[in-house]
Design brief:
Elements: H1 2-17, E1 23-27, E2 33-40, E3 43-50, E4 54-55, E5 66-74, E6 78-92, E7 129-130, E8 135-143, E9 146-153, E10 156-159, E11 164-179, E12 189-191, H2 192-205, E13 222-224, E14 234-235, E15 244-245
Parallel strand pairs: 12-13, 14-15
Antiparallel strand pairs: 1-11, 2-3, 4-5, 5-9, 6-11, 7-10, 8-9, 10-11
Length: about 250
């Protein structure tokens, strides 16, 4: 009995160890950085943009900086304990920058635009880098049985009191994981065609697609059926091969 339990535990550890250290490398080009003036009353602000990145949302009154969202594959029964930067290449941009503060969203019903939000006095007198870190995990979820962590990357950070911008051209990201309850909806079987489509979709989404090979979709999951739709025929029981079921 002891040997049976040991073997079972060993198999569980082996299945999670395959994806124990998800990692990726991210690069940015300073030539893709766009800084344009924005004049409001007597103030001239700098609008900071970066190709392939979005503005930092939901931070009204705080410096508006570009962010990039990455998706990393992790095991179903793990969660992100920390986001670690194992390599970083940064440089301080020359010049003084008065970064535009985040604003309220414009209405989509044709109404008047919201009033301008002035810079937050505390944030714009800070001597610390903003945002607090280069990368952080902001969400986790499932896509067709594959668990994905959403990582927010901040390639541009700001020291408001010095009006200084720090630009990151390259970083290596590694996730530290810890065990958690597996909340994935069980997937028992898929046709070969469906599984191929799911894998292509997930590979295109995540930055560590190599970890899809050997991914554990849960006990009992198996692929059956053809790799392409078969001719429609009637069968007694449901099938994943594209055939119909005959009513009895």
């Amino acid at each position: 009995m002891r040997i049976t339990v040991f073997c079972f535990v060993a198999l569980v550890l082996m299945s999670t160890a395959a994806l124990a250290v998800p990692s990726c490398s991210v690069t940015f080009s300073e030539s893709d950085l766009r800084i344009t003036p924005y004049i409001h009353d007597d103030d001239t602000f700098d609008v900071v943009g970066l190709s392939g990145a979005n503005a930092l949302l939901g931070q009204v009154g705080l410096p508006s900086l570009p962010v990039r969202r990455l998706y990393m594959l992790i095991p179903q029964d793990c969660r992100v304990a920390s986001v670690n930067i194992t390599y970083l290449d940064t440089t301080s941009l020359s010049g003084d920058y008065y970064v535009l503060p985040g604003q309220l969203p414009a209405p989509t019903n044709g109404g008047p635009p919201p009033p301008f939000v002035d810079p937050d006095s505390v944030a714009y007198s800070s001597t610390s880098l903003y945002p607090d870190c280069f990368a952080t995990c902001i969400a986790e979820g499932f896509s067709s049985g594959y668990k994905v962590a959403e990582i927010e990357v901040n390639p541009v950070r700001y020291v408001a009191s010095e009006r200084r911008l720090l630009f990151c051209s390259s970083m290596d990201i590694t996730l530290s994981l810890e065990q958690c309850e597996n909340l994935a909806r069980p997937v028992h079987r898929r046709s070969e065609l469906t599984q191929q489509h799911v894998e292509r979709t997930v590979r295109a989404m995540v930055v560590n697609p190599e970890d899809i090979d050997g991914y554990d979709l849960g006990f009992g999951f198996h692929v059956e059926g053809r790799s392409s739709p078969s001719r429609l025929t009637l069968t007694e029981l449901p099938s994943v091969s594209g055939k119909a079921t005959r009513n009895c």
